């Protein structure tokens, strides 16, 4: 689920932060910029893992900012294709099931990726897996296991500077995951919990 | 910003969990707070890693810094890919269907005895949830009595 990504960047430390130790100021700056942000084709950044290198600080003209070149490693959320992960059902539609984790909401399992003989109940807005005469429910909030089959990237650059274009671009999530539950062991966790005995 | 190496390493959930817990403790000791976006994400991520289906939620903890090495040693006879090993660490498959969810083409690659031995090895090294006590007045059942 998690990887380390090595990044080079310029950190600018404002005079108000001069009272902090340089190491703390650099770490806070990096985390303020990256934490909980998506980098396209990299993943959702969690936080700085370690600082590998930092240059001498150079004071910029006119601004009083101290510029420091840094290299560091970030912890990044980026489940690989084929990886099985845990999530929770957040909602369901005839198109499939939306799944979230506590920190990431954009996971979707299409109806095509549910086991055969699944049906959608429009009144209850939930999917049901019918096995012989048993009905098993994909209830909201149930913990599930799913396997990642694809990822969708969207850099939120608006088509124009018009306000509605900017709003429109922000509506599409920058990173979303598509999964499957069509394999034994995937789907609602409790279905597979007690099969051992 | 320049990406120097997009995937320098894979981390297990336990490594991330330990890192974030240590960070939270250090910040507290130094009486400092990280940026708001980090504080929020750390709280949510720790909550996820401690959620009930997650093996890291078990008390007392069954994972430690030696777990990866012990698991690799125990499962050495089997050709298990690196990514699969990370999933085994993260999800702790303690029965055959769960193992099937983390190993590609399990049936073709491993005999029934081998599958049993892998599952047994996972339990030996990483532990297993104690059997769930039956809860009184099961809520999930009562909502389904429409028919």
TrEMBL record, chain A:
Domain RNA polymerase Rpb7-like N-terminal: 9-64
Main location as per UniProt: nucleus
Location in or out of the cell: Nucleus
InterPro entries for the chain: NA-bd_OB-fold (IPR012340), RNA_pol_III_Rbc25 (IPR013238), RNA_pol_Rpb7-like_N_sf (IPR036898), Rpb7-like (IPR045113), Rpb7-like_N (IPR005576)
Pfam families: RNA_pol_Rbc25, SHS2_Rpb7-N
Domain RNA polymerase III subunit Rpc25: 83-192
Domain of life of the native organism: Eukaryota
Record keywords: DNA-directed RNA polymerase, Nucleus, Transcription
Family, similarity comment: Belongs to the eukaryotic RPB7/RPC8 RNA polymerase subunit family.
Job description of the protein: DNA-dependent RNA polymerase which catalyzes the transcription of DNA into RNA using the four ribonucleoside triphosphates as substrates.
Protein name: DNA-directed RNA polymerase subunit
Lineage: Eukaryota, Fungi, Dikarya, Ascomycota, Pezizomycotina
TrEMBL record, chain B:
Family annotation (InterPro entries): HRDC-like_sf, RNA_pol_Rpb4/RPC9_core, Rpb4/RPC9, Rpb4/RPC9_sf, RPC9
Annotated localization: Nucleus
Position of the signal peptide: none
Boundaries of every RNA polymerase Rpb4/RPC9 core domain copy: 1-130
Pfam families per the UniProt record, alphabetical: RNA_pol_Rpb4 (PF03874)
Any coiled-coil regions, as ranges: none
Glycoprotein keyword on record: no
Alphabetically ordered keywords of this record: DNA-directed RNA polymerase, Nucleus, Transcription
Entry annotated with the keyword Transcription: yes
PANTHER family (alphabetical): CALCITONIN GENE-RELATED PEPTIDE-RECEPTOR COMPONENT PROTEIN (PTHR15561), DNA-DIRECTED RNA POLYMERASE III SUBUNIT RPC9 (PTHR15561:SF0)
Family: Belongs to the eukaryotic RPC9 RNA polymerase subunit family.
Protein name: DNA-directed RNA polymerase III subunit RPC9
Organism: Apiospora hydei
Native organism taxonomy: Eukaryota, Fungi, Dikarya, Ascomycota, Pezizomycotina
